[in-house]
Amino acid sequence: MSADAVAAAPPPGFFSRLADSEEWLPRILLAPAILYIVASVGGPFIAALVYGLTDVSISSTAVHFVGLANFRSVIEDPGFHRALRNTLFLAFVSQGLVIVLASTLAIALQRDFRGKWWVRLLILLPWVAPISLGSIGWLWMLDSIYSVLTWMLRWAHFLGPWDRVAWLGRPNLAMGSIIGVQVWRTLPLATVILLGGLSSIPQDIHDQAEIDGARFWRHLLQITVPLVLPIQLVAILFGFVFATTDMIVVWVLTRGGPYDTTQVLASMAFFRGIDGGDLAGGAAIALFLFPVLAIAAVVLLRVARRTEVT
Asked: What is the pTM of this model?
């Protein structure tokens, strides 16, 4: 192209300059995701904060500012303290089991064996299936009369032919059942995350460990676990968020019973705000999840950053 043709060419338009800008192009590409997060998370959070500072309810159109009265009322409620303990207990125990089982599955699935892809598909099914349908299936399996688990225990002679187990009728068994369903639900995601972390470890490190004579446990504890620990903490964070904010499992299986022994903050907020009509009280309970999740996220992310291997 001649110099005259280059000089006669029109200057690039606004969108062309924007597409070539290293400063503005990343911001433009991130803008839809940021707007979506603000609309889907920030909007409900602000609405809950406003509701928590008023006396709004379903039965009345009049709304008055009450300050922190709803939060004081919630803190003084013994049921709230029980729900908070149940929430933390459910989250810590379920995620402790998930990280152990997910690490075992991820290490096993790294090896080549016949039917490996079918096993991966079966592991992913609980995460793909809607949790409401899965919880209904577990409700049938934990039924006090028709439970398939009770039938298996009878078949294995752990129970007599007429013995029954009230899986959801006794406090300890009900909480154990909810923990089991939460483990079943979040195990696939943690397994996939850890599989990605294990796959990112260079093969040279494994080969060098074998040359140095490292056996299975030494290889696992001194090489694999330290290298994959930051990713394990991310998996724990995701599972902790799901376990503390989910109310579907509790709502379908126990409704918080027996005697509120399986009530968690998410289900308590729903029952008080929607079923009870006290929108302000339900919003105040739901807002207590924010500091719990914020503290967990900050702690886990800081630990993950410190354990990163450069």
From this structure: 0.81
